[in-house]
Structure formats: C-alpha cells, structure tokens
Amino acid sequence: MSIYTKKGDDFYTRASDGSLLKKDDKLICATGLIDEMAASLAFAISMLKSEEEKYSAKPPFYVGDLVGDLKKIIKHICAMDFASGANETMDVGFLEEKIDSFEKVLPKLDGFLMPGESPGAASLNLCRVDVRRCERELISLLGERLSKSIRQYINRLSDYLFCAMRLAMYLRDEREISI
C-alpha cells in the first residue's frame, strides 16, 4: 500500500472506521492537535537525551510515558461515538504524583517564570504551550463530549510540563527568572 491515496488532494482523509471525512472535520482536527502534542514531546525527549551529561542528577521526567497516553487519547477520539458517551480513563494521579515530587525539590515559585535557556528546558516549555493551545482548541471542537478524565489529564499535563521544565533548569543550575 502506498503512503499516498490522493484522497487528500480534495481535502478528504479516511477515518479509522473507513469513512471519508473533510480534513477540517472536528474529529480530524482534534486528533491532529493531540498528534502535534506527541510530536512536541518526542522533540523534548530528544533534547533531554542529548544533554543528559549536563544534569547534576538523572532527570526523572517520564516524558516518554506521556506519548503513549496521547496515543490512547487519539484512539479514543477516533472511536468516539457521542451517542454512547464513550469514555476513556486517564491516569491523572500519575501526573499529580510526579508534579508533587518535583515540587518537593524545587524552590518556591514567586511569580511568572521566564522559560529556561537550555534546549531541554526550552523544549519542555514549548510542549507546555502546545498542550495549552490544544486544550483551548479542544474546548471549541469537542467540549463536554470529550471525557472528563481526558480533559483533566490534558490540563494536568501542562502543569506537569511546567514543573518538568523547572526541574530541568534546577538540575542544570540554571537561574529562574521571574517577571
């Protein structure tokens, strides 16, 4: 099978159930947003790995685990049957536990923070911004039809990425600059 189908030439794409949808269909846009978040996370992973030797301790970021979670969300959105109230349960507690563990070692936050200077910290901040944009757009695309668990997970994910950025800065002895 070829990678090109020529369906996209007329702005259509095939959904997971085999139906043809316009590329600006709400479900296609929603899965695209999650796919963009996964790409940002993959980039952050590569940046963090490329500078591992510069950290004072091995960073416990768990960013790779998050990509799998995003794939679960894409699968959920692709299979959404709004009439049945399809629901996916996400492990929000995992993110909260990691946030809490990061905050135990980080200095007290005293204002709006400038993003880090290192590639790893900057890429985590870029992920955080992508997640916030995705969250805003998912509200208008799917709103309440998206499971509460997924809405909570995406909201908590941006908090997690913010704390992970701060931890990356901390482990590199980068100074936090509040504005």
Structural features, described:
- By secondary structure, the chain is mainly α.
- It has a single domain (23-171), classed as Hypothetical Protein Ta1238, Chain: A (Up-down Bundle), CATH 1.20.1200.10.
- Helices cover 57% and strands 3% of the residues.
- A hairpin with a 5-residue loop joins strand 1 and strand 2.
- Helix 1 (26-50) packs antiparallel against helix 2, helix 1 runs antiparallel to helix 4 (119-141) and helix 3 (92-105) packs parallel to helix 5.
- The protein is elongated and about 50 Å long.
- The mean pLDDT is 83.
What would you say the CATH architecture is?
Answer: Up-down Bundle
N to C succession of SSEs: EEHHHHH
Strand composition percent: under 5%
Query: Which spans of ≥5 residues are poorly predicted at pLDDT below 50?
Result: none
Q: Helical stretch count? A: 5
CATH class: Mainly Alpha
* Estimated helix fraction: 55-70%
CATH superfamily: Cobalamin adenosyltransferase-like
How many domains? 1
- Outline, from the CA principal axes? elongated
Termini separation: 53 Å
CATH topology: Hypothetical Protein Ta1238, Chain: A
Radius of gyration: 18 Å
User: What order do the strands of the largest sheet run in, or round the barrel if closed?
Assistant: 1-2
Q: Largest beta sheet, briefly?
A: 2 strands, antiparallel
Task: Provide mean pLDDT, rounded.
Answer: 83
Strand and helix layout:
Blueprint: E1 12-14, E2 20-22, H1 26-50, H2 63-78, H3 92-105, H4 119-141, H5 148-171
Antiparallel strand pairs: 1-2
